[in-house]
Every structure is written in C-alpha cells, then in structure tokens.
C-alpha cells in the first residue's frame, strides 16, 4: 500500500517506520528542511529506543523516504496521514493551524481520490474542518474530487513507542465509510493478525476517545498525587497506600505512581484542550479542570521541599538534578517537571548541575548557555560541589545509589526524590535527609 505521512515528529516517524516495516511504501513529508536533511543522511532527530535502526533498515530497503515536497507526498499515497503537532493555544484549546495547513496542501495538490487520516490529537469536530479545508482548496482550483476524512488517534507512549504501535491494545478508526474501513484494515492488517484490535466507530467518538483516554490517565496521576499530599500531612506512607489500593483489581497498579507531576507533549495539552472543549459545549468539566490544577501544584513540590530543606535560602546553592526528560527513555522535555524546578531555582539564585542520559542536548536547545546551568556528562559529575540532589526522572540508571558515598559527596546531606525510588530507611541510615513524595515527611 502507498502511504504518505505529514509530520516527521515522534508520531509521524514511528508510524512511518512501523508501516514501512510491514511492507508498505511510505513517504514522510515535513516542512522542517533541516530535519528532513538529517533523516535523509541517516540521522534520527529524536531519541526513541529502536527507532533509528528501524528507520535505517526500511530506508535501505527503499520502503521509507523523507521529503519536503508536499506535492510529491499528496501524489504518492492513497492514505494521507496527518501527524503534525497540535500545541495548546493561549486559551488552552488545541491549535489546529498545522493540521488545517496540511488539509489545504492536500486539497491544493490532489488529483485523485484520497483518504485523509487524522492521527494528530484533535478536538471533536476537526475531521469536518479538515474536510471543509480540503474542499475549499479544491474549489479554488476549480476542481471537484472525491475524498474521505477519518480519525485514527494514536495511543503510543514515548519511550515504548515501537512496542505500542505494533502491539498496542487497540486501533481506533472513526469513519462511516466502507471504503475507508477496507483501506484502514489493509493498512493495519499486519498489526491486526493475533486478534482483532480494530475498533470502528463514529468520527466524533474516535476524536473524543483520544482525549478521554489521556484525561483518564492524567486523572489517575493527579488522584494519587492528591492522596500523597494528604499522606504527608497525615503521617501515612503513600507507597503503602498505593499497594493497598492497587491490589484491588478494580483499581489496578498502573498509573498510580506518586511523583512530581505529569509532563510531556500530550497529557498537559490534552487535558487543557478537553476542558476547553467542555467549556465550549456548555458543560464545564469540573473534574478535568481539577486534574490540571492538582498537576500544576504538584510540579512545584520539589522546589517547595528544597525550600523547606534549606529554610528558603537557596541563593548561591548548587543543586544536582538527575533527570531532565519528562519520563525515562525519551529526550522529550516538553512540560517536564524538571523545567518547573530549574526555572524556580534560577529565580531563587541557585545553580543547577543536571544529568540526563538522553535529554542534555534538548535542554541545551531550550535554555542555551547559562552561568547557572551545567549539563554534566554523568551522574557523579552532576554531584560535584552540589549542596543537594534532586531526582526528577525515574531513569533505570538512577535506581541504585551508594548512599554512604553520596553523603560524603554532597555539601549538605539533602536528597529530594521526586519519584519515590528508595526506601526512606535506607537513605536516612546513611545520614541523609530524604524528602520523597507522600512518605510521611511534613512538606
Ligand atoms: P512533533 O512536534 O514531534 O512533530 C510534528 C512534526 O510536524 C514536526 O516535525 C513539524 O515540523 C511537522 N509539521 C508541522 N507542520 C507541518 C506541515 N504543514 N507539513 C508537514 N509537516 C509539518 O509532534 P508529535 O509529538 O509527533 O505529535 C504529533 C501529534 O500526535 C500531536 O497532535 C500529538 O498530540 C499527537 N500524539 C503525540 C504522542 C506523543 O507521544 N508524542 C502520542 C500520541 C499522539
């Protein structure tokens, strides 16, 4: 099958590489000239485990190409995937500029029937807007041509994106057209052999499904963080509570890890966008708004705990920070709790010495050269001359620490653990003050 994908970011690249890997012919179109040049030179601009070799293998086999030439892309695929960014607008709504631009491009260049597949996360009603944008472009050209628009939201997680794409729990397609159903079954057939994972539904339901899924997961995180904050005040240990509730199969263990708040490119913007959609629909979604408020507050927790540990005297302190990415196995720092912390520390006059296994160059891209930021090459280097250690991301490499050595290295014996990686007894036995999330200390 010939497939075109607009947008070569996390979703576009993973979709392109995975679909090429099962034998489809794929062209990825992106407006970022530099990105496309790097991809054509065999360099993958993002870190995602396994992606570089999958792209390389399929490029070498001639099934995966990258271009900035959108006319070539529109001409190529029966399926035209839209996988461009939908960032938050100032009012929290999803900014559809890029999505509608692609729709216009398709209308400007198509010469035959096309199926436009919306893979970007977009609010309910966007498929109709995309359809209108394509039709308007065709009309300007004085052309009339059949096309369909369907919704195919993506549920992959960064860090495990290839596994999620190929072995995900479901493939949601919103359409009422038999022709589209047939084409989408052909497209995903190789990933749908073990059991039927295709869930066909109405377009608006598919669009809402993506937001409902992310809002549900974000709700679980904010819920456990709220319980963690209560546990701190009540002298309970949220890790014991987590086991106590997670063992109930109706609740389960997933997504109830307390921490320093969720970040990334999806949960924050999707929760905001859903709240905005609800407001517009005349149904202010109280729960969704609370999820967002709880999370913003949680992202300030690490700074609060540092202030408590240092009696608010953070000026001229050097803070070692382990983990910059919003979660392990990615270099993505969009809305990461580490950013909230670093920015607060800089405001307070502190210096940051940070180490992340993958996100250092992304951090440099965001913040540039600063006197109050050192990007260390390894975790030990980040500790040199530091007054305290803060853990922001639960990379595997941070899970074992020689606490006696850490006690000797740090100028003050302060460890702030934003991911509850250790047992408080072990850390405290080495003479360190240990501040975790919801584990009985009083912040
Ligand atoms: P991204 O920012 O990593 O990539 C978007 C790409 O689109 C960029 O390379 C950009 O240059 C390109 N682009 C912008 N305008 C274009 C145009 N007119 N034509 C061609 N390319 C264009 O974004 P992402 O993280 O891949 O997310 C894409 C969409 O998928 C978003 O709606 C997001 O919410 C959704 N999503 C993301 C994830 C995730 O984990 N990242 C998971 C599920 C869904």
Automatic annotation (TrEMBL):
Its EC number is 1.1.1.22. Pfam families: UDPG_MGDP_dh (PF00984), UDPG_MGDP_dh_C (PF03720), UDPG_MGDP_dh_N (PF03721). The keyword Oxidoreductase applies. GO terms for molecular function: NAD binding; UDP-glucose 6-dehydrogenase activity. Transmembrane segments: none annotated. Pathway: Nucleotide-sugar biosynthesis; UDP-alpha-D-glucuronate biosynthesis; UDP-alpha-D-glucuronate from UDP-alpha-D-glucose: step 1/1. Belongs to the UDP-glucose/GDP-mannose dehydrogenase family. This is UDP-glucose 6-dehydrogenase. It comes from Billgrantia endophytica. The lineage of its organism: Bacteria, Pseudomonadati, Pseudomonadota, Gammaproteobacteria, Oceanospirillales.
């Amino acid at each position: 099958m010939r497939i075109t994908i607009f947008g070569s970011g996390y979703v576009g690249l993973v979709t392109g590489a995975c679909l090429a890997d099962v034998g489809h012919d794929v062209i990825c179109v992106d407006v970022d000239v530099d990105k496309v040049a790097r991809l054509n030179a065999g360099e993958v601009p993002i870190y995602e485990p396994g992606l570089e070799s999958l792209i390389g293998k399929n490029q070498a086999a001639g099934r995966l190409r990258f271009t900035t030439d959108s006319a070539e892309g529109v001409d190529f695929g029966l399926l035209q995937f839209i996988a461009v960014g939908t960032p938050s607008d100032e009012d929290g709504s999803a900014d559809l500029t890029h999505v509608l631009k692609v729709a216009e491009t398709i209308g400007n260049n198509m010469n035959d029937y096309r199926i436009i597949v919306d893979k970007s996360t977009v609010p309910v009603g966007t498929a109709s807007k995309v359809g209108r944008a394509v039709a308007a472009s065709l009309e300007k050209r004085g052309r009339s041509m059949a096309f369909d628009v369907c919704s195919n939201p993506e549920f992959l997680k960064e860090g495990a994106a290839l596994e999620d794409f190929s072995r995900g729990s479901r493939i949601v397609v919103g359409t009422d057209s038999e022709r589209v159903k047939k084409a989408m079954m052909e497209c995903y057939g190789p990933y749908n052999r073990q059991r039927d994972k295709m869930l066909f539904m109405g377009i608006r339901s598919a669009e809402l499904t993506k937001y409902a899924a992310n809002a549900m997961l974000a709700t679980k995180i904010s819920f456990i963080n709220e319980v963690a904050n209560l546990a701190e005040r009540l002298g309970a240990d949220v890790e014991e509570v987590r086991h106590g509730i997670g063992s109930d199969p109706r609740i389960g263990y997933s997504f109830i890890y307390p921490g320093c708040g969720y970040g990334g490119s999806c949960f924050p913007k999707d929760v905001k966008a859903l709240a905005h959609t609800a407001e517009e629909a005349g149904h202010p979604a109280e729960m969704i708004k609370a999820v967002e408020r709880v999370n913003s507050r949680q992202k300030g927790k690490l700074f609060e705990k540092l202030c408590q540990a240092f009696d608010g005297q953070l000026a001229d302190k050097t803070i070692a920070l382990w983990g910059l990415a919003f979660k392990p196995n990615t270099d993505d720092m969009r809305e990461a709790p580490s950013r909230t912390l670093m920015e607060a520390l800089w405001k307070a006059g502190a210096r940051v010495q940070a180490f992340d296994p993958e996100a250092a160059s992304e951090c440099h891209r965001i913040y540039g050269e600063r006197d109050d930021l050192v990007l260390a090459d390894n975790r030990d280097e980040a500790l040199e001359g530091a007054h305290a250690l803060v853990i922001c991301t639960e990379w595997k490499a941070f899970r074992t620490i020689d606490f006696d050595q850490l006690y000797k290295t740090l100028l003050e014996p302060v460890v702030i653990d934003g991911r509850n990686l250790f047992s408080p007894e072990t850390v405290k036995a080495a003479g360190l003050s240990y501040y975790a999330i919801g584990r009985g200390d009083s912040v």
